[in-house]
Automatic annotation (TrEMBL):
Protein name: NADH kinase pos5, mitochondrial
One GO term (biological process): NADP+ biosynthetic process
Keywords: ATP-binding, Kinase, NAD, NADP, Nucleotide-binding, Transferase
InterPro entries: ATP-NAD_kinase_N, ATP-NAD_kinase_PpnK-typ_C, NAD/diacylglycerol_kinase_sf, NADK
Stored SUPFAM superfamilies: NAD kinase/diacylglycerol kinase-like (SSF111331)
Cited HAMAP family: NAD_kinase (MF_00361)
The keyword NADP appears for this protein: yes
């Protein structure tokens, strides 16, 4: 009897397709445009809104900055992803599911297959839809938005579930360690989820990189296929003692030959991860760019380089190299780079829409025809503009990195005497 019931668990294919939503730029995205260009800017935005129905055409709307999110209709399918082997994340998911089912009863909840079995055994939760890498295309067409419970690694894993298409908006909760991709603590899950359903959140479109493997003739090799990464592509010496020698080309032009322990090609989001540890610069996620950071280079003059986001980077092993570099995508080892092959890296057409705190914007005040701001509105103080576009990144580099904090001596405290004296 149990086996027959197990075969009848809900199938993703029968879920309704994901609903449409639109993103509109907030604050600084349009206020810095000159008055003579507002009509052109708003025309571009409106064209992007038409493309923003999360069809493949969504990829061509590449504006950065904070955006307001508005659902065209109520979200119906939510993907929940939690940190593996974490009791706190499992308990948090239990509470999140109960809240969604009690307040948004028409919502379908999707989890990974192993998580479904765990929730049924530990918390007695049934009736969940299960997902695996085998039904990647189904996830692309069904998921309205995703909720992650864990750390930055959980958010990266969620992005990897959509390696060939647009990622749905992602709401990330910290269940312990803080991270750059975790704007919400799990204690605020009720208000945060309600804000997403009510379209009172802002979204940052975090740029991803598209990575492909080619042979000497330029033909695409299927071993790597097409991968979209959120943090970085890293070439490193791996188990070999020799330095790697990598020829770097930008838009087909030779830039340099890197002789180092490795080379990191990162996104602005990845600039606060592996690249930062290797001495790379911090880049705001709204500044779309590609960062090249050497790992322990032999030449002290080889400094990190920031390239425009529309650049194409090609990396190939030098003929003088004594070993093959290992290739890692977002920390996952995927292959070794062979002779005559090269890796091509460019801006992905599918960014990750990261949900931030509530937007200082009234969705009901939007009109079908955007109105140009008056001179008085354009002259508003910088404090007002900053209040409308809360920046989690600035908070994070101070709270998580202690950015530019001075060194303090903790070993020489003044002794004031005690009771034993």
């Amino acid at each position: 009897m149990f086996r027959s019931l197990n075969r009848l668990k809900p199938a993703l294919e029968f879920l309704p397709n994901k609903v449409d939503f639109e993103l509109r730029p907030l604050g600084r995205s349009w206020e810095q445009e000159s008055s003579t260009r507002h009509s052109v800017r708003w025309f571009h935005v409106r064209v992007c809104l038409i493309l923003l129905l999360f069809s493949p055409l969504f990829s061509f709307c590449r504006s950065s900055g904070n955006h307001s999110l508005k659902w065209i209709s109520q979200p119906r399918n939510i993907l929940l992803v939690k940190k593996s082997h974490s009791e706190s994340s499992s308990n948090a998911m239990h509470h999140v599911i109960n809240h969604i089912r009690s307040k948004f009863s028409d919502t379908n909840i999707i989890v990974e297959d192993g998580v479904s079995r765990e929730l049924a055994a530990v918390h007695g939760i049934h009736g969940l839809y299960t997902a695996s890498q085998a039904n990647e295309s189904t996830l692309l067409s069904k998921v309205d938005f995703a909720i992650t419970l864990g750390g930055d690694g959980t958010a990266l894993h969620t992005a990897s579930l959509f390696p060939t298409g647009p990622v749905p908006p992602v709401l990330s909760f910290s269940t312990g360690t803080l991270g750059f991709l975790l704007p919400f603590h799990v204690n605020t899950y009720k208000s945060a989820i309600d804000d997403v359903f009510n379209s009172t959140v802002s979204v940052i479109k975090r740029m991803r990189l598209m990575c492909t493997l080619h042979d000497a003739s330029g033909r695409l090799i299927d071993d790597l296929d097409v991968s979209h990464v959120l943090n970085e592509v890293a070439l490193h010496r791996g188990r070999y003692p020799h330095l790697v020698q990598i020829e770097i080309y930008v838009d087909g032009m030779p830039l340099t030959e890197a002789v180092a322990d490795g080379l990191i090609v990162s996104t602005p989001t990845g600039s606060s991860a592996y690249s930062l540890s290797a001495g790379g610069p911090l880049v705001h996620p709204c500044v779309q760019s590609i960062v090249l950071t050497p790992i322990c280079p032999r030449s002290l003059s080889f400094r990190p380089v920031i390239l425009p986001s529309d650049s194409t980077v090609q990396l190939r092993m030098s003929s003088k190299a004594r070993s093959k570099p290992d290739v890692s995508l977002d920390g996952r080892e995927v292959m070794q780079l062979e002779n005559d092959n090269y890796i091509q890296i460019a801006m992905s057409p599918f960014p990750l829409p990261s949900i931030n705190r509530a937007a200082q914007y009234d969705p009901e005040s939007r009109t079908s025809t955007p109105r140009l701001p008056s001179e008085k509105q354009l002259a508003q103080s910088a404090l007002d503009r900053l209040g409308r576009a809360q920046d989690d990144w600035v908070r994070d580099i101070n709270d998580l990195l202690n950015f530019n904090s001075r060194f303090e001596s903790k070993g020489h405290e003044i002794y004031h005497g005690g009771q034993d004296d």
